[in-house]
Amino acid sequence: MKAIKYLVIGGAIVLTGKYLLSLNRAQKKIVIVATGKRDKISTQGISILIRYNIKNPTNAAMRMTPPLIKLSVNGKLIGTSNMQLIDIPADVRDKSGKIVIRAFNETGNIEARVLIPWISLATIGGDLIKRFQSTDPKDQITVKLETISQVYSLVGNFPHEETMTIKL
Predict the structure, then answer these.
(1) Dist. CA 37–CA 51, nearest whole Å
(2) For 29-41, what is each residue's pLDDT tens digit?
(3) For the chain, what are the domain ranges?
(4) Residue 146 CB coordination number (10 Å)
(5) Whose CA is closest to 128, among 114, 144, 139, 117?
(6) In this structure, are residues 115 and 41 in contact, taking their beta carbons and an 8 Å threshold?
(7) DSSP letter at 126?
(8) Contact 23/153 with Cβ under 8 angstroms?
(9) 20 to 30 A from 138, CA-CA: which of 105, 126, 147, 160?
(10) What is the mean predicted confidence (pLDDT) over 100-105?
């Protein structure tokens, strides 16, 4: 009876260790791939549509809060996402609104809209306003996109931040 008890405890320790190791790898390997384009121009500012796909190349399943998205040009913050303007597909959204990231899987396109107020663009330069309004591919603007979110797993949670550069 004692031998079975020790085998069960040893097996639980091995499985827990394996899960923690896969979570540690997942923290370093989760990738958010994002693209962006100008959505619409209004009296409030320019709306940017950001599409992102979260890739999990590990065997750890987890949940993630929708990322807060920050856009900056030349080191100056020009806009942040609004959590109400995020569209998460039903097959990767749980009841609490978190994104479900399955093992060895991708979430598919999740959309977020970021409003860049006119005042933010005016402080950076008038040339940027013209380039944002232009449809010419030569006028694309390089923007730094930063995502900040919280990842939840069975054994705890950890912050996840990623910075990338996209063209709008």
Answers:
(1) 9
(2) 677 788 888 888 8
(3) 2-167
(4) 16
(5) 139
(6) no
(7) H
(8) yes
(9) 147
(10) 87
- CB count, 10 Å around CB of 31? 12
pTM for the full predicted model: 0.74
Element (H, E) at 29: helix 2-29
The CATH class given to the 2-167 domain equals mainly beta
For residue 98, which of 157, 37, 25, 47 has the smallest C-alpha distance?
157
At 147, which amino acid appears? Answer: T
108 φψ region: left (φ > 0), alpha (ψ -120 to 50), beta (else): left
Residue 75's pLDDT is 85
Separation of alpha carbons 51 and 14, rounded Å: 39
Which residues are CB-neighbours of 33 under 8 A, at least 6 positions away?
52, 53, 55
In terms of C-beta density within 10 A (0-12 exposed, 13-18 middle, 19 or more buried), how is residue 129 classed? middle
